[in-house]
Amino acid sequence: xxxxxxxxxxxxxxxxxxxxxxxxxxxxxxxxxxxxxxxxxxxxxxxxxxxxxxxxxxxxxxxxxxxxxxxxxxxxxxxxxxxxxxxxxxxxxxxxxxxxxxxxxxxxxxxxxxxxxxxxxxxxxxxxxxxxxxxxxxxxxxxxxxxxxxxxxxx
Length: 155
Known about the structure:
By secondary structure, the chain is of the alpha/beta class. It is built from six helices and five strands. The chain starts with 8 loop residues before the first strand and ends with a helix.
């Protein structure tokens, strides 16, 4: 999983909800503390929620970054800026939100093509990322928050 410079680079792509994003940030920081370049891919709204944490991590010497991916809220009939699951009200809007998450495939592919990570750690709610990673010949690891927390506690 090494890049041309000999350093591994992992993309982390959490589900768009704080309950998923927070443990992914912790995991990305853990990998970065081991010398692995990490990049968290999320929407502008969600990135703004944890940008200070990332900046503090960078200041402490970790190679951790973020990349924004536009969330197609308006395209599916949601209000502009509705980029997190906790912002959704009602079943109908939840269906729109879930549809919008599937529309992130092409923008994610573009970022992978541009940045060439060696691995993609994607949320369990993004099953389509398995195909994306396969197209680039990189492994896709599944992030499942409940499992991550239980594994962290047992070690």
